[in-house]
Amino acid sequence: MLNDHSNKIIVASAGSRKTTYIVKEALSNPTDNILILTYTIDNINQIRNYITRENGYIPTNITILSWFSFLLQECVRPYQNFVYSDKRIETVYFPPDIGKFKADRRFIKKENVKSYFLVGGKYIINEHISEFSCLCNVSLRQTPYPSTRFPPLLVSRTAAAVARVQIFYNLGSA
């Protein structure tokens, strides 16, 4: 079970040595499972390189993911069948021209899960992945379970897998 003191969220401007702090904290806790979330692929590579420089390798207790990979792996795929079961959602779709993409889809209603959240029935739209994750959680909580069993929540799945959560936001990059 997580306690309030095991989680850290770090929000700071570019150049404030967030990466240094996160890497040192992660490496100083070899028995804890550490999840480092970041928004860009460049930041993932920067953190991986920094850990490798400091430690020689990335320890097995440290997981580095992008925000979208985290949502896809931990919140969408395990629970997508509660909302959408036609096909396995394969990856996140990033429209090349977001303005045109939004304009073409402006009349699609959320109730049409396949068309609103997905492209081709198996690619989840980047701007809707968080909302889809929440929809999965709501659907999961509404599913009837025997009275002796509590429904598993997305948060409990993640909490069981990751005992210590550190989130890295790089506010200085796009």
What does the model show?
- Mean pLDDT is 80; it is low at 1-5 and 146-174.
- Helices cover 40% and strands 17% of the residues.
- The protein has 2 domains: 8-68 and 158-170, no CATH class; 72-154, no CATH class.
- Strand 2 (34-38), helix 2 (41-55) and strand 3 form a beta-alpha-beta unit.
- The protein contains 7 helices and 7 strands.
- Strands 1-7-2-3 form a 4-stranded parallel β-sheet. Strands 4-6-5 form a 3-stranded mixed β-sheet.
- Helix 1 (18-27) crosses helix 2 (41-55) and helix 3 runs parallel beside helix 6.
- The protein is elongated.
End-to-end Cα distance, whole Å, is 35 Å
Q: Calculate the mean pLDDT score and round it.
A: 80
Summed up, the helix count is 7
Assembly state of the chains shown = single chain
Strand order of the largest sheet: 1-7-2-3
Q: Any idea what the radius of gyration is?
A: 18 Å
Overall structural class, as computed from helix and strand content, comes to alpha/beta
Strand content: 15-25%
Order of helices and strands: EHEHEHEHHEEHHE
Largest sheet: 4 strands, parallel
How many domains make up the 3D coordinates?
2
- The strand count comes to 7
Q: Could you estimate the helical fraction of the residues in percent?
A: 25-40%
Shape verdict: elongated
Poorly predicted runs are 1-5, 146-174
